[in-house]
Amino acid sequence: MPGFFKRMSFKKKILSSYILFISVSCLLIGTYFLKNMNIAKEESYSYMHQFGEQVSMNMDVIVSNMDRVRFLHFIDDQIKYILRRSMKEKTSEEFLDENDYIERALNHMTNMNQYILRATIVNEFGEVYSNVLTKNEEYLERMKRIDDSLLWSDKNKVYYTGVYQEEINLLPFELVTSISKLYDINQDSYIGTLYIDLNFSRIRKILDDLIESGNTGMNLLIFDENQNVVYDSSGQAERFWEQVKGEEKEEIQKFLANESSEKRELMLYGEICLVDHIQNPETNWEVLVWMPFSDIYVSGWRNMVNALFWMMVLLLTAVILGIYLANQISRPVMVLAEAMSQVNQGKVNLLEKEKYCWEDEMGLLLNSYNEMGKRINDSIEKIYIYQINQKQTELKMLQFQINPHFLYNTLNTISSIASLSDIEEIAKISDNLSSMFQYNIKGDDIVPVKRELQHVKNYLEIQAIRFPDKYRFSYEISPEIEQEKMLKFLLQPLVENSLQHAFHKMKRVNTVSIIASEDGDDIVFRILDNGVGMSREQEERLNQELAQTDTGTLVNHVDKGIGLRNVNVRIKNLYGKNYGIQVKSQEGSYTEIQIRIRKLEKEEGEEKG
Q1: Reduced to 3 states, what is the DSSP secondary structure of residue 70?
Q2: Helix (H) or strand (E) holding 447
Q3: What band does 596 get if pLDDT is binned at 50, 70 and 90?
Q4: In the chain, N or C terminus with fewer CB closer than 10 Å?
Q5: Using one digit for the tens of pLDDT, what is the confidence trace for 82-115?
Q6: d(CA 374, CA 501)
Q7: What is the 3-state secondary structure (H, E, C) of 569-586?
Q8: In this structure, how many other beta carbons lie within 10 angstroms of the beta carbon of residue 12?
Q9: DSSP alpha helices (H): ranges in 344-448?
Q10: What is the mean pLDDT of residues 593-605?
Q11: For strand 158-160 and strand 171-183, is the pairing parallel, antiparallel, or unpaired?
Q12: Are the C-beta atoms of residues 40 and 296 closer than 8 Å to each other?
């Protein structure tokens, strides 16, 4: 960061200082408001939790005294006796008396709870007893279906249905029905099933009054055991799940199933909301209290927006003032900097004093710059004259150097004399050396594979004559690649490298094999020797160095000779980073140098040539 600040212009430094000062102030104010908002969030969450507990307690009051109805057969043995007998065992008078008896008992119990509209018992024989005459077969069938779908492993279980419409005594009601099983005192023998219908309109009225009395912007959702909406304070209970889709629906379901117990935020009705939920132990309903964050933060956000507005006004004023001051201070510096930048181009422009009427420290700096510029211009002129003289001297020196064609012609003369004198080795060496020299001085960089291989053969034939019976050379060249184009001087440096380093411990037979083949659109050369090889560590280190060679590396900057590394750099610079050299070796056994290049297009070969 200090280095970056040093590289900034003087004008930007001044502006940055102004902006940094105002930004820190904005940050502190923003932190203060965010802290206050977090406090408001925690207070709202605490109040929501208390409200949820209050709703749950009210639900407990609503379902209170219902246990009296459930335990009616324990309180009155006559009722248990009636329920255990089938209608087939009774006379008409007994049935009427017993039905009247149970009706009066149920009426007595249900009158203790203002929310109960009807209590119905269906005994083990399918016979119906109710405090209200029930002839609605659809109602009984609905209850039977719900009853059959439930697991009653817990004999004390009480299940509450969702809200549904039903007529009682020809009057329409919104009902919630509790379903429970009746057993004898030992919980062994099944006696019947009890359905208690609650007037949900009255329950909704209580919940609506709670919401309105709070007047805090809180909202309430109540879900039954199947996650059906029983109550929605917004009045959209029936359409709640239709409005919630996708990931939002999955998150709500996980939240209700306590799979994300630490979660306190949900998306409801298109808004991010703070939520809390409590499970009522009597009904197993989930009471979910929620409040949009926009309502929680509305007052704090309004204050924060006002503060940020004035901070932005202050920041804008500071920036405008900073720009004006920075221009007044930085303009002379920029003029001098621009003039000094011309020095890198071999040109120093002097500044006109009349144009820049600076009478402060910048005026002194301008005078010093002009004096310095005059001295630099004088020095540049002297150096330029000196360099011209130096180049002229070098050109004259080159005129006295040996012409390469003279050496080439001299080698041909030596070969001719050796042939006439019947000295075959000298003739052979001269011819090979002449061919190599001609190959070297020819200006083409791209040559046919056949010519590159012939250049290597010329070199190896000279070595074979120099060291009789020391080396054995072999060639396996695919004919189809001989006319392909390739970069010049790739193979001979690597073969020379093998002869120099592979056989310092001579074997009985020292062999070097050159294998060339095509691999799809690539050409692969393999140079194998049976020399001393190298260790696994040396092989891995060398391959890693070759693989990491950059395509932009200059050949003159390769500091380890013209062997592997030099050739590898040349290959990557022409063919790309996916091509180059790879080495395989086994210490004391062999070394294989593999060169992979791609086939050059005709236009590419002509351009390089």
Answers
A1: helix
A2: strand 446-448
A3: very high
A4: N
A5: 888 888 888 888 888 888 898 888 888 888 888 8
A6: 59
A7: HHHHHHHCCCCEEEEEEE
A8: 14
A9: 361-399, 404-420, 424-441
A10: 82
A11: antiparallel
A12: yes
Are the C-beta atoms of residues 254 and 317 closer than 8 Å to each other?
no
SS3 (DSSP) at 532 = coil
The two three-digit tokens of residue 564, written as one number: 């592997």
Task: With CA atoms as reference, report the closest residue to 489 among 552, 558, 441.
Answer: 441
Give yes or no for a contact between 84 and 164, defined as CB atoms under 8 angstroms apart. no
- Enter the tokens of residue 231: 């109550």
What pLDDT, on the 0 to 100 scale, is given for residue 359?
56
pLDDT category of residue 12 using cuts at 50, 70 and 90: low
pLDDT single digits (tens) 385-401 = 545 544 543 443 334 33
Half-sphere exposure of 503 toward its Cβ, with a 13 Å CA cutoff?
Answer: 20
Q: Which of 102, 77, 71 is nearest to 181 (CA)?
A: 71
Residue 245's SS3 state is: coil
Distance set, CA 372 to CA 220, 365, 366, 443, 486 (Å): 82, 10, 10, 48, 55
Contacts of 67 (CB under 8 A, 6+ apart): none
pTM (2 d.p.): 0.47
| Burial class of residue 266, CB neighbours in 10 A (0-12, 13-18, 19+) | buried
pLDDT digits (tens, 9 = 90+) for 475-517: 999 999 999 999 888 898 899 888 888 887 767 788 999 999 9
Strands 590-598 and 580-586: antiparallel
In the beta sheet, which residues pair with residue 239? none
